[in-house]
Amino acid sequence: MKTVQILKKHLDEIVLQFGHHPGLSREEAAYFYIGPPEEVAPGVWHFYSLANSITFICEDRLMQVDCNIAFRAQAVIDAIREHTTAPFDTLAITHGHVDHCMGTYFYLKDSEKRGDPRPKIIGHKNLRWRIDKNKMLEAHRIGTDKKQFQVEFEQTDLFVYPDIEFEDRIDVTVGGEAFNIVFGHGHTEDSLWIYCPGRKVLCCGDLFQWTAANVGNPFKMQRFALENARTLEEMAAHGAEVLCPGHGPVIYGREEIRTCLLTAARYLHFIQDHVVTCLNKGMILEETVNSLKMPAELMNSKWLPPLYGHPVFIARGIFKRYAGYYSGRPAELFPPDYAAVGQEIVNLAAGAESIIARVKELKQQEQMALACQLAEWVVEAEPQNADAWEVYGLLFKERAESEFNMQARGAWNQAVRRAVANLDRLEG
Ligand SMILES: [Zn+2]
User: Which among 90, 39, 91 is positioned nearest to 250, based on CA atoms?
Assistant: First the structure.
């Protein structure tokens, strides 16, 4: 098979990982787990979709926590309707990421179709700001989501603003059932968590999501590790018997939940403390990241596999938050064009062939980061060099195949797509 065919086959075989976990237990599937709905407490239904949502049946009405991604919302509403015909009274949005809020429109439509009163939408006061940001950067965000999740999926943007906004905390009663809704800074600046003391159910949104925390995302805006850790500790103090996370399986049992939330907090504090210490010692970004050694007990925690978040991403996020984006390498503040650097390196090596040979050696030695860097210089220096694109594509394909972290895999597969596009261009 020709190299370009091998690369295309690799790209064709990428699947959306959510719900695709053959042979794995719910805990092993972790962040990607999607299973049948669960009645987690009497009258409390947890639904798995791209992101989870929870429906509390409160006498003759419903409290809904999160409204799914737009293209999966109707399926969840249909599933809710298999268990209850009560109208939605309140829709609480844990934060303005599309997988939690973009389906709100369909919940309103469902109520309208049934002739029910319009449900009230509750969100943190920063949700409105986040919706505006999403509108401003719509094309960028949709493109980025595809890079992160690696597959083309239909995305409809149907923005709905909250009716009720709050700053620190709001307590609401739905059908006689009390809910504490609390601002939980960290994952985003509009995150909230919801506790139902009557049923001891805690809905934490993405403040915990069965992966190393998604704070310090390489593709996304600033997030807040320290605040996320403190929010996890605050939630742990509530004595919940059921924890419904934003992604991944429901967790049962007071002690298990407490340990889970406090472990997730410790994970973030460890990285936060490391970066703060490094900054105060005057260390630059590279030194800070490369000297981070996570304790095995945290790295191996069943609750925190680096499936989506990653300790390096978290460390970089914290560094950038306090010290800006400067790498600390003076040559990189106003850097030369990438292609110009590549050309100099190719010239010094007296041609691309010897670098390509070295790339193959480094790959054999599993020095993938170095191999990828050299290969990237060559394709930038010589975009007409089909051999270079083939090596580049195969290298990143192999790196993607052995990569555990979905976002890193997304970046490596972008490189494979680039190689395919250039090989097609050179062929044509
Ligand atoms: Zn989410």
Answer: 39
Q: Kindly state whether residues 135 and 220 are assigned to the same domain.
A: yes
Residue 122's H or E segment, with its range, is strand 120-124
> Could you tell me if 226 and 359 lie in one domain?
no
Q: State the average pLDDT over residues 229-241.
A: 97
Residues 83 and 214 in one domain: yes
Residues 120, 213, single domain; the answer is yes
Residue 95 lies in a domain: yes
DSSP 295-352: -HHHHT-TT--TTSS-HHHHHHHHHHHHH-S--S-GGGTSPPPHHHHHHHHHHHTTSH
Distance between Cα 225 and ligand 1 center (Å): 16
Q: What's the CA-to-centroid distance between 296 and ligand 1, angstroms?
A: 26
Give Cβ neighbours of residue 336 (< 8 Å, ≥ 6 apart): none
Distance in Å, CA 200 to ligand 1 centroid: 22
> Do residues 247 and 389 share a domain?
no
| pLDDT above 80 (res 149) | no
CA of 205 to the centre of ligand 1 (A): 7
CA of 368 to the centre of ligand 1 (A): 30
Q: Quote the pTM value.
A: 0.95
Q: In angstroms, what is the span from residue 295 Cα to ligand 1's centroid?
A: 26
Q: Is the pLDDT of residue 371 over 70?
A: yes
Using an 8 Å Cβ cutoff, are 53 and 70 in contact?
A: no
From CA 107, how far away is CA 112, in angstroms rounded? Answer: 9
Residues 112 and 215 in one domain: yes
Q: Which domain holds residue 212?
A: 29-270
C-alpha 165 to ligand 1 mean position (Å): 20
CA of 194 to the centre of ligand 1 (A): 15
Distance (angstroms) between ligand 1 centre and the Cα of 100 equals 6
Convert the pLDDT of each residue in 307-342 to its tens digit: 999 999 999 999 999 999 999 999 999 999 999 999
